[in-house]
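Retro notes (design track)

What went well: tokenization of the new backbones is finally stable.
What didn't: we kept losing track of which sequence belonged to which structure.
Fix going forward: every design gets posted as structure first, then sequence, in one message. First example under the new rule, 172 residues:
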């Protein structure tokens, strides 16, 4: 039986955001990989569970201001990167980070990479009082991700394949 890890994204005020229990798949030079098969669930805060139609893996890099979801087909969004505070491993069974609103995505259909939710980032800078260093780190992570994801630099090239293969095709 694979180890289960509680994944808790929070907002800057500590409010629970996206959260789910995922299976630890392993580690490589890019970080820690967790995965879920199609049919698993996720939650936004304490709302009812949301059924996941496609398998996905989640990468938690070491000392970086982002996390990345790699979705199996036919999901239209191939890669979804959340700009966050560096993931903090509370224990081997729980990881948490603060979602800083900006996201970088790559679409499967046309391969286009774009940054989204800049309006939410601007709004939350005021609402939550993001410190200047947090804003600077988030913006720098966004610039780096745009280039790396668009250029298919690893781990945004083929690195996710073996990990996604471990959960794709499973049913929960």
């Amino acid at each position: 039986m694979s180890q289960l890890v509680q994944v808790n994204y929070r907002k800057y005020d500590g409010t629970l955001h996206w959260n789910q229990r995922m299976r630890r798949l392993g580690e490589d030079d890019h970080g820690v990989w967790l995965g879920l098969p199609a049919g698993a669930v996720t939650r936004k805060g304490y709302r009812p569970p949301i059924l996941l139609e496609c398998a996905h893996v989640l990468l938690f890099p070491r000392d970086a201001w982002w996390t990345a979801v790699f979705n199996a087909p036919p999901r239209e969004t191939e890669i979804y990167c959340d700009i966050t505070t560096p993931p903090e491993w509370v224990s081997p069974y729980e990881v948490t980070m603060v979602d800083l609103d900006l996201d970088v995505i790559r679409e499967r259909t046309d391969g286009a990479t774009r940054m989204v939710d800049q309006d939410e980032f601007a709004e939350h800078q005021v609402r939550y009082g993001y410190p200047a260093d947090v804003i600077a780190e988030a913006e720098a992570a966004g610039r780096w991700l745009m280039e790396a994801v668009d250029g298919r630099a690893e781990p945004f090239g083929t690195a996710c394949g073996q990990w996604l293969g471990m959960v794709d095709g499973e049913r929960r």
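Added context from the reviewer: The longest strand covers residues 94-107.
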